[in-house]
Amino acid sequence: MTREARSSLIGDLQIEIEFDAPIGARTWFGIGGRAEMLIKPKDETSLQTLLRRCHQSATPVRVLGGGANLLVDDSGVDGVVLQLDQEFFTRRRYNKDGEVNRMLAMAGADLFKLVNETARQGLDGLSQLAGIPGTLGGALRMNAGGSFGDTGQAVESVSMLDMEGNRLDLQGDALSFGYRASSVPNGIILSAILRLQPDDPMAVRGRVREIFAQKSASQPMADNSAGCAFRNPTIDDVQVPAGRLIDEAGLKGLTIGGATVSERHANFISTTPQATARDVMTLMRQVQERVLDHSGAKLQPEVVIWCDDPGAPMP
Ligand SMILES: Cc1cc2nc3c(=O)[nH]c(=O)nc-3n(C[C@H](O)[C@H](O)[C@H](O)COP(=O)(O)OP(=O)(O)OC[C@H]3O[C@@H](n4cnc5c(N)ncnc54)[C@H](O)[C@@H]3O)c2cc1C
Q1: Does any ligand 1 atom lie closer than 6 A to the CB of residue 249?
Q2: 277 and 243, same structural domain?
Q3: Contact 37/156 with Cβ under 8 angstroms?
Q4: Active site annotation includes 302
Q5: Is there a single domain that holds both residue 47 and residue 132?
Q6: Cβ(84)–Cβ(38) under 8 Å?
């Protein structure tokens, strides 16, 4: 993009900007390419104006949360990558009135912080998300969760901007959440109102600790990874853990370059700092092929992959 085009896109906005930003290195995988422009808006108006201009100029826009479920191709991505980590987008406001309390939380808020902060105040509703890294925006997009529950169960409403910059406030019937999926339309999630139940702070903190301990006992939490690489497939109407299918195909420890199928949890792919995003993609493709051969199950990626190269070995 030319200097003039960039300046007409962003010249007068309240934003922080970084050109050629190494976003791959900032994901939980810790590897991958760069973004042409990483833009951090300081308020909603600047974000809205930016989205309108990007739409008019056909500039691609993506949004990065905490990068805990993301693989960025080694060749990087064109256009704008947004990150909502400025103060305005991490705020939360509590309404502690009645049996159900509510919190308005902005999408850039860190999920670990939300879980711990609400538990300390004796408010339950998010303890099921203990140990899941990332931002609230990413958790809403993915409906992050697991055997203890998911993000959607706490959600009363979601506010967002669509890719043309129009604001949408979605409540009740307009919202549904399923297995690692939500009905929230494509766009930028700004905030959500979450329902919280008052409880004994010791009890809520105990639940958070217990869920965290169970997660750390079975998952390689300290490795560089993006959590589960594949979604659990449904076979004969039953959801089957992808990790079990990968394990049964004998793939624990399978390595391509710096990417390895974790010995600890077969649905995690761990990376070394020397790994490339293509190592991860190639490994994921091999896992898919060998699980298909072994059990007939077709694994679909859970990890979001940003890749502009049509020739890439996309799983
Ligand atoms: C060690 C580890 C353990 C994990 N355990 C779990 C688990 O138990 N359960 C689980 O579900 N996941 C788990 N994950 C995956 C990850 O934590 C979740 O998917 C998380 O919700 C991703 O949030 P994020 O902010 O990092 O999103 P990112 O990875 O940055 O992005 C993921 C997707 O969300 C989109 N997105 C992000 N913010 C917004 C926004 N404001 N508006 C619109 N779209 C947005 C991105 O564009 C992208 O498509 C784990 C990951 C790791 C590394």
Answers
A1: no
A2: yes
A3: no
A4: yes
A5: no
A6: no
Residue 279 lies in a domain: yes
- Does pTM surpass 0.90? yes
Mutate to test the pocket of ligand 1, among 50, 85, 141 (most ligand atoms within 8 A of CB): 141
Q: Which tens digit of pLDDT belongs to each residue from 167-206? A: 999 997 889 999 999 999 999 999 999 999 999 999 999 9
Q: What is the mean pLDDT of residues 290-313?
A: 97
30 and 73 housed in the same domain:
yes
In whole angstroms, give the CA distance from residue 222 to residue 225.
Answer: 9
Which of 95, 130, 128 lies closest to 113 in space, CA to CA? Answer: 130
Residue 277: pLDDT over 80: yes
pLDDT digits (tens, 9 = 90+) for 15-44: 999 999 999 999 999 999 999 999 999 999
Is 228 catalytic? The answer is yes
| Ligand 1 binding pocket mutation candidate from 40, 69, 183, 215 (most atoms within 8 A of CB) | 69
Do 53 and 115 have their domain in common?
no
